[in-house]
Amino acid sequence: MQQNEQWSSKIGFILASAGSAIGLGAIWKLPYVTGNSGGGAFILLFLIFSVLIGFPLLLGEFVIGRSTGKEAISAYKKIAPGTKWHWIGYLGVFTSFILLSFYSVIGGWIIHYLFATVTGGMDQEAGGYKVFFENSVANPTIAVVSQGIFLLITVVIVARGVQKGIEQMSKIMMPALFLIFLILIVRSLSLDGAMDGVRFFLKPDFSSLNSESLLYAMGQSFFSLSVGISVMVTYSSYLSKKESLLQPAISVVLMNLFISILAGLAIFPAVFSLGFEPTDGPGLLFIVLPSVFEQMVFGKVFLFLFLSLFLFATLTSAFSMLEIVVAALTKGKGRNKMTWLMGIAIFAVGIPSALSYSLLSDISIFGRTIFDSADFLVSNILLPFGALLISIFVSFKMKKDLLKSELIQGSKGLHFVFTIWYFLMRFIVPIVIIVVFLDSLNLI
């Protein structure tokens, strides 16, 4: 029996799923790594692995959710009753909870920067943007309050439900995200010397590829698509049985790749044109880019647009993280109350991460700050482990006939697609995930 919650349309489902996948990783991290890992050569690798690894996993989660019409935990229980496989759902809920607790900290930084851009707060800081960023994250009040505001926005939207909340906002934010990108790209490419940045980002340089580039491309292929934590199981459970699963999956993968390329074209031409060096981590978003926009005509306007874009991307991902937690705990009942309770709980758990650069900066876990430790736990352990379990569950526990009927539902002539997908899920995806997982732990 299908849940009461439903997407009103296929495009709503696609935009919400793409919004979940397109977060800081796609817009912020991937462009930088691309530029330093062979440019267009790395993009090619990422595309290949997205098709061979990320896409099959995404379809696998779609099949689990849509076939059962249940949220993450109940979906596994329905397919494999009386077994322990439903712990994959619990793992996904736990991972999403922890992920949102520190992800909201970055969202808070963006909100603080937006406020400072509007009020002129950054202009008053002696020492420039680097000092402004360091002072901001080191201020416990700013860090915690900004994180709370970000989670408040997330809770208000998710509490409204799938159609009136997540879908409605995704239909606004995702087109707005594309529009802002296009405005920024046009401005960035119009600068003198912009082509140096384009070459840095897209020119294929196979000599720059190494084993690390290969492994990152493999890992990014499923990390950047929100697979491995059963978010897409929950989202697809709201999809009508009449709709095809293949088209939405292809759309999400293509949109994610397209957004990553747009991000690079918006960032690097401007960075190179104005004589800055691209940097990794928070520096690119919070230090270098404000300095870049400052030198442009109407720079504050473009900085505001860019930060708005990042906020939209961060929020649409946050919606999905909170939704999987709420859906698992409510089973469709008492959504509003549970959303607020979980929002408060996530906020409380995230406070130590928010204070990692101020009051709790002296606390170290295996040589990492609390924020970095939470990030490592999710990115290097929980996500790949969850993806591995899902690939095994789909290809070895679910009945082949059920998989086939769900995959070709709403489409015609896709039997050969199912054969290829089933082979990838059973023999290729698990092996690749194990390699990435062991490498992330420095075991190979």
Automatic annotation (TrEMBL):
InterPro entries: Na/ntran_symport, SNS_sf, YocR/YhdH-like. Keywords: Membrane, Transmembrane, Transmembrane helix, Transport. The keyword Cell membrane does not apply. It is found in: Membrane. It is a multi-pass membrane protein. The chain crosses the membrane at residues 12-30, 42-64, 85-115, 142-162, 174-194, 214-238, 250-276, 301-326, 338-357, 377-396, 416-438. SUPFAM superfamilies: SNF-like (SSF161070). Pfam families: SNF. NCBIfam families: Na_transp. This is NSS family neurotransmitter:Na+ symporter. The lineage of its organism: Bacteria, Bacillati, Bacillota, Bacilli, Bacillales.
